[in-house]
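Morning!

As promised:
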Amino acid sequence: MPAISWSTDVATATRGKWLVGGPPLAYLIVFFAVPCLLMLVASVRAPGEFGGLAPLASDSGELNLTLGSYGRFFASPIYLQLFAKSLWYALLTTALCLAIAYPLSMLIAASNRKYRDLLLLLVILPFWSNFLIRVYAWMIIFGPDWALAKAVNGALGLFAIEPVTLMFSPFAVIVVLVYVHLPFMVLPLYANLEKHDPALLDAAQDLGARPWQRFWHVTWPLSLPGVFAGAALVFIPAFGIFAVPDLVGGTDGIMIGNVVKQQFLETRDWPFGSVLSIVLTVAALGITALAALAARPRRRTA
Amino acid sequence: MALLDILNVTRRFGSMTAVDGVSLSIEAGEFFTLLGPSGCGKTTLLRMIAGFDAPDGGRIVLEGKDLTGVAPEQRNVRTVFQSYALFPHMTVAANVAFALKMAKTPAAALAAKVDEALRDVQLDALAARFPHELSGGQKQRVAIARALVTHPALMLLDEPLAALDAKLREQMQLELINLQKEVGITFVYVTHDQSEALALSHRIAVMNKGRIEQLDQPSKIYSFPKNRFVADFIGQCNILEAQVKQRDGDVVELDLPGIGPARALLDAAPPSGARGALALRPEKVAINPSGYAKTDGDNHLSGTVTDFLYLGDVTIYRVALASGRQIQAMRANSASGRARFFEVGDAVDVAWQVDAGHFLVD
């Protein structure tokens, strides 16, 4: 009998799992779980006299904790309205990204294998330049002295409509948000669509499905995992983003991320900033969870 | 008028002619098989009937209507794909219902038809399963049910049993025969497996290099192959080069180079000196120990067993003749107490009756 010791094998396998999974787990604990906890604690502490946080315990040893920051958040409609607006911007961005990325991904997946990598490269190519440079480029494009604004206002002038500013507007925020997040929608969608078995479309056609029916009954439902992956990758960062509205949004285009940044850097009210951050995280998680729940495959008999 | 007429259909891919001037007619209710090696054009022909490919020349006429320019979704034809191509995101019932849904069938009629189709393939118990929860044989049945649910004029089956193991394939063959009889839908079946074609079909078209080599009933194709390709492709066959020496009534004297004289029956009359081949099935060649009593009128040769294929019920022996030529003979392993009759190196006599061989004129 060859000497096989199961216990050794199991022990080796367990050790292997920890070797592989340990470092990323440790990374996530140190740089995600712990900061989340710190923020959670910060949200129930009192603000410091000169910004930051007040001491955790008073001199007499009493804990200095308060739910006041949460109260402040829910007492004022401004913050909830800002949340609603950010949510709307993020959903709109996600929808527009999907509308642009879906045909693009289908086109790439359907093109000759030789050109697919090149086409994907072209999608990613702009991202080799710095984020700020790309946003500044948009600031130039939207600028009042440039062709786009002149063309738009020229056209509006024909109908005797007041000229508009493209720069520093919600419009500019949405355009740049879509531009910045598009590849995050294209890549998972392409990865999904590229794997579809072309025989399924043949089968659908053979069974009497016209082109639109083939898309709606076969391609679309099979692409939903890609759609949800892409939507999550676009929606979550777009919901909390501050750089884009900061640069091109002006006062009208402000989002909740700007307020969070303001609380930490300008107002220096860390507890309230933490409250906003936590609400943002919970809202993003909640919406993603709801979407995942809605996307679960169901057993339909006919 | 036939249900399906294929009229001089040609399809070229670049310089390669996949289907070369094929004409054939398929009658309603027939189980028709396109048989041939891979690359013979049978799948291309099937795809043109389904509408996924268009002929470069010729016409395909179904129920009297020219199908030229008719999209696949508008043809009263359903395909069972080799890979099954079941929709992975739909249950068995939804897969079967697909064609009905596309045709906007009312819900009540739809459910009844789906039930009937699933009962036809004995899958009614698995209606709520998803394809990934099914075995290969079950997937195959779903694919068939999905195709026959709308009772199309024609069902095309593209090597539907190729992915199944041998035992299951045999069972599915029997079920296919019964199912086709029961539903009365015309089947056009594509396969490269000659035993499958022989077992299933009413008629077989043997294809090679884009052309039909022979079109006939299975027994005719097996017993009376028209040429060397058919004789060689269908079943096991000795193909022995031959030349007609002279004719004596319906018996021709042949000269088999390297083997010697032999006789064969002939109905047609090839001229003296005509060249060709003698096609001889191994099961028609008797193999006996050397010195076995000869029967009058038979062809007799002596040789040595060089190797054999043991197939369980029978063994195929390869016998080297004195001239160095080889001939295959089959013998049933039916004697009690022994597994095989001969070993490598045994001296044997081989013999076949005059009418056992079939002369193929070149």
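The first helix of chain B runs from residue 42 to 50.

Hope this helps with the figure draft.
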